[in-house]
Amino acid sequence: MTRLTILEYPDPRLRTRARPVAAVDDELRRFIDDLFETMYAAKGIGLAATQVDVHKRVLVTDVSEEHDRPLVFVNPEIVAKESVGTMQEGCLSVPGYYEDVDRAQRIRVRALGRDGRPFEMDAEGLLAVCIQHEIDHLDGKLFVDYISELKRTRIRRKLEKEQRARADQAARPRQPAV
Ligand code: GNR
Ligand code: NI
């Protein structure tokens, strides 16, 4: 298992539209395991392949407290949605920022599971919101696209500044070992 690196806004690779998965095979299952490891390590409730720079239509979620409800969605499609509501969202690719977003609070989603078999599932509340947030990632969309341009620009500038500081820190000459 490998912990993957999560891309951060405004990285242009987050704007890539992911392509459908042709076959759910052992290699894809290993990648799915890496997505879970990365998501749990980052304390997220969902993760889309796009966020780790893999542009395949795969997402994972686990909205349980105990980390005992892992769900895998390959080639997901929302087939029904109802009752729009507002929820405060965050994103591992936009660390430290939380904003209200309106989305359907109940959905029916169709996808392939870890075994490659098709299934349909009804979801509501946080899980419904999370699945929509992850499918947005697969389409190159981020929750900040739904907020005001003013807020989005502020978030982008702050994250760019943090990313520059981190890059400078990494490039800093180190004291040579004697
Ligand atoms: O960890 C996450 N929390 C969250 C909270 C509200 C709505 C959506 C999410 S998804 C997010 C993890 C993430 O960035 N997935 O793409
Ligand atoms: Ni996200």
Low-pLDDT sequence parts: none
Helix and strand pattern: HEEEEEHH
Largest beta-sheet details:
5 strands, antiparallel
Count the beta strands: 5
Name the overall outline.
Answer: globular
Strand content: 25-35%
Small-molecule binders here are: ligand GNR, nickel (II) ion
Report the radius of gyration as a whole number of Å: 17 Å
Secondary structure: helix percent: 25-40%
Query: In whole angstroms, how far apart are the ends?
Result: 36 Å
Please tell me about this protein's structure.
The chain has helices at residues 26-41, 125-138, 149-171; strands spanning 46-48, 58-61, 71-89, 99-112, 118-124. With 178 residues, it is α+β, with helices and mostly antiparallel strands. It starts with 25 loop residues before the first helix and ends in a 7-residue tail after the last helix. The protein is 30% helix and 26% strand. It binds ligand GNR and nickel (II) ion (NI). Ligand GNR binds at residues 44-48, 51, 89-93, 129-130, 133-134, 137.
What are its keywords?
178 residues, 5-stranded antiparallel β-sheet, 30% helix, binds ligand GNR
